[in-house]
Design goal:
With about 140 residues, the chain is mainly alpha-helical. It has helices at about 5-45, 55-140. It has one domain (about 5-110): Helix Hairpins. It has 2 helices and no strands. Helix 1 (about 5-45) packs antiparallel against helix 2 (about 55-140).
């Protein structure tokens, strides 16, 4: 049954579903960021530092370690950013769900009100028919 809130309910439902998709996307981004950070740590642990040899080998190893540490720092920042995006998406979804539930409730209350009015109208009509039938019976017996 339609009410004045029907279109608002469908709009709010679409907005809520869009927020759910945004949260899923943010969660996937966070998962990817964490996996990339883990891979960066693994790559750092695989770098071997030379114990003897030419100074150029030591400098190259040092540069490689600095580069990997820089990459790890970048990935940690990416994880922090992704966590913040997930937090914001969850909050947005919560707000959108509340809005949807509010308008859904108002819609249901409006439908209940209309159904109640219809029941009362039908009840009055049935009472009127019963009264007319009763009066006809009583007139014919006198």
């Amino acid at each position: 049954m339609r009410s004045k809130f029907t279109s608002l309910v469908s709009i709010k439902k679409d907005i809520m579903q869009k927020s759910e998709r945004a949260l899923q996307s943010a969660n996937m981004t966070l998962k990817n960021a964490k996996e990339t950070l883990e891979l960066s740590y693994d790559a750092l642990s695989e770098i071997e530092t030379p114990t003897n040899g030419y100074i150029a080998d030591f400098i190259a190893s040092r540069t490689l370690l600095d580069s990997q540490r820089s990459l790890i720092k970048h990935n940690e920042e990416w994880v922090a950013y992704a966590q913040e995006q997930v937090k914001l998406a969850k909050e947005r979804l919560r707000v959108d769900m509340l809005e949807y539930e509010k308008f859904k409730y108002l819609h249901l209350e409006e439908v209940k009100k209309v159904l109640k009015a219809q029941k009362i109208k039908e009840s009055k009509a049935l009472d009127e028919v019963a009264l007319m039938s009763f009066n006809r019976k009583n007139r014919t017996t006198f």
